[in-house]
Amino acid sequence: METKRSDVEEWKKKKKRKRVTMKQKNLFELWGLKDPHPKPPDPDDVQQSRAAAASPLNCPFYKKIPAGTPFTVDAFRYAPVKACSAYFLTHFHADHYIGLTKSWSHAPIYCTNLTARLLNISLYVAPSFICPLELGTEYNIKGIKVTMLDANHCPGAALIHFRLPNGQSYLHTGDFRASKLMQSYPLLATQRINLLYLDTTYCNPKYRFPSKEDVLEFVVGVTRRYLNNHPKTIVVVGAYTIGKEQVYLAISQALGVKIYANASRRRILRSFGWAGISENLSTNGKDTPLHILPISSLRFEVLQRYLESQYGQYTSMLAFRPTGWTYSETIGENLNLIKPTSKGNITIYGVPYSEHSNFTELQEFVQFLRPEKIIPTVNVGNPVNRGKMQSYFQQWLKA
């Protein structure tokens, strides 16, 4: 996931007071340590949480699968949704699973196997409500044929294909990065999509960021050169709870070093079931120069404290913030034009590594599918944005 603009604004309002200063408690949590002086919960936060729980929201139409189906997608915060008897989760990012807790008891949750494991180990959702589905396998759920397809987003993320008894086919992309490989998916290559729910995070012509492969090559090159000049450097990669794994895996493989992450992240990474991942994780930060931190912590004051916590083992820090929001039109695909920001002995590179489709990839995907109707699922709150996106869709389908 790249955190979406609308979500960012919402989080800013809710967390404004907490972001004024980075409290010591937060630093201990980021680094996987215990705070020796824990503070009681903020009464205002408790009150807000209770108020939110007592105020059910109306489920947006773009989270409902129509034509009489009892399905919703990523709509847990609106539960219970009227007439919904099956909730689908596209992937394990907070803006999609928000509303899911260990007390969930509304209806079955359908998701991929990997996402199912994360629901259990991270949110403690009761296994009796989790229905894992294999990628590429067709299931009959309440009389509708459902197939999960790899979304090329974070681990476990899926496109969801619905085939109704009347022959209509719907595709919900969740969050995804469109690729040429998707054009070889049999369901997409052979069946007309009547209704497409499209991830429009970067549905704007200014977003034409480079491929993930090109960004990974750039990151590895920068890291090699930096370490050659400054051998006592700690390398930090910012990441979400899941997502951005390929960035630090690329560095790890190229340099032949292990990956240090806190216990919570190590537990999640091991749950992926990827070959060789467990052996490549370090439980001791002193044993490797490659460390993973939450992407939200990539601020100079936080990184300075983290560097100081390394007992003088390193004299400088190189950090990467991998997100499409760092993309600049003036740089485009010429990654060598990226200028890092530095303060003292800390250098931060913002690199346009995105797990969402850029504008060109969205266009190619839509022109490949040629759906009858497109429903955007991101940045839909503004009528001007909706109008622009619909004009793009019309242009693409006329071509």
SSE class: alpha/beta
Label the CATH architecture of the largest domain: 4-Layer Sandwich
Overall shape:
globular
The structural domain count equals 2
Which series of helices and strands comes N to C?
HHHEEHEHEEEEEHEHEHEHEEHEEEHEH
- Average predicted confidence as pLDDT: 88
According to CATH, the homologous superfamily of the largest domain is Ribonuclease Z/Hydroxyacylglutathione hydrolase-like
Spatial separation of the terminal alpha carbons:
30 Å
The DSSP helix count reads 12
Please tally the β strands and state the result.
17
Low-confidence region ranges: 13-25, 27-55
Trace the largest sheet across and list its strands. 5-6-7-8-9-17
User: Rg to the nearest angstrom?
Assistant: 22 Å
List keywords for this structure.
399 residues, alpha/beta, single chain, Metallo-beta-lactamase, Chain A
SSE blueprint and pairings:
Blueprint: H1 5-15, H2 24-30, H3 43-53, E1 71-73, E2 86-88, H4 94-97, E3 109-112, H5 113-122, E4 130-133, E5 138-141, E6 144-150, E7 158-163, E8 169-172, H6 186-190, E9 195-198, H7 212-229, E10 233-239, H8 245-255, E11 259-260, H9 263-271, E12 281-282, E13 290-294, H10 300-308, E14 316-322, E15 341-343, E16 346-351, H11 359-369, E17 373-376, H12 383-398
Parallel strand pairs: 1-2, 2-3, 3-4, 8-9, 9-17, 10-13, 10-14, 11-12, 14-16
Antiparallel strand pairs: 5-6, 6-7, 7-8, 15-16
Helix pairs in contact: 7-8, 11-12
Protein name: DNA cross-link repair protein SNM1
Pfam families: DRMBL
InterPro entries: DRMBL, Metallo-B-lactamas, RibonucZ/Hydroxyglut_hydro
